[in-house]
Amino acid sequence: MPASHRQPVEGDVTPSLAERAYTDIEELIVTLKLAPGTVLTEATLSKQLGIGRTPIREALQRLARERLVRILPRRGVMVSEIDIKAQLRLLELRREVERLMARSAARRADSWQREQFAEIAARMETCAANSDEVAFMRADREFNDLCVKAARNEFIVGAMDMMSALSRRFWFLHYRQAADMPLTARLHAAVARAIGQGDADGAAAASDNLLDTIERFTRATVSVEF
């Protein structure tokens, strides 16, 4: 949840502050509290989040690389619009990358990471049982981050950075009309569980099952020739 317990301090820069700024702003965008088309300023975000403007600037630059915001010269920063055709093109890449990532993570995760995958799987099942979309979104972000680290392939990092937040925002916007959130959480849990067990083939198959469901959901949101 975005923090607001401290006053911003100009020049207060540490990696943890920049990461916190990124996490807070990304969640506001993904959960549509900052809607597409909203114009943002460093000063407003700094006051709202209680974080200095320098880490806010770093976070916005990262969000721009991930296409969640657009930097407008002399106008500030605008939350990017949602494009269904771009989302379908993204899914083509996401399917291939996530299958590879799941397989690699299952093979390369260390013992601590395997425990974390088991814990995330259990949390995903709880999200499914409670239909808790915000807890699911947060668990999904942790799951993606852990997958990237466990896969130990630096070329996956850039691809996942761009895809993950865009995909979560699209899901959050449309899932009440077209998605089965408990099913989606259980499918994520299946991937996490297979990775935790070191089952590379099972993780790849579970990833494909998840992406099949996500693609059906995406196409169900709108009738479009693609």
The portion of residues forming beta strands comes to under 5%
Fill in the CATH topology of the largest domain.
Four Helix Bundle (Hemerythrin (Met), subunit A)
What does the main sheet amount to? 3 strands, antiparallel
Average pLDDT figure: 87
From the 3D coordinates, which CATH architecture of the largest domain would you assign? Answer: Up-down Bundle
Terminal Cα separation, in Å? 37 Å
Q: Which class do the helix and strand fractions yield? A: mainly alpha
Number of discrete helical segments? 9
Order of helices and strands: HEHHEEHHHHHH
CATH class category name of the largest domain = Mainly Alpha
Estimated helix fraction: over 70%
Which runs of at least 5 residues are low in confidence (pLDDT < 50)? Answer: 1-14
Strand order of the largest sheet: 1-3-2
Number of domains: 2
Could you explain how this protein is built, in words?
The chain is mostly helical and 226 residues long. The chain has two domains: 15-79, Arc Repressor Mutant, subunit A (Orthogonal Bundle); 84-220, GntR ligand-binding domain-like (Four Helix Bundle (Hemerythrin (Met), subunit A), Up-down Bundle). Helix content is 72%, strand content 4%. It contains nine helices and three strands. It has helices at residues 15-30, 42-49, 53-65, 84-108, 111-130, 133-151, 154-178, 181-196, 200-220, and strands at residues 39-40, 69-72, 76-79. A three-stranded antiparallel β-sheet has the order 1-3-2. The longest helix has 25 residues, at 84-108. It is globular, with a radius of gyration of 18 Å.
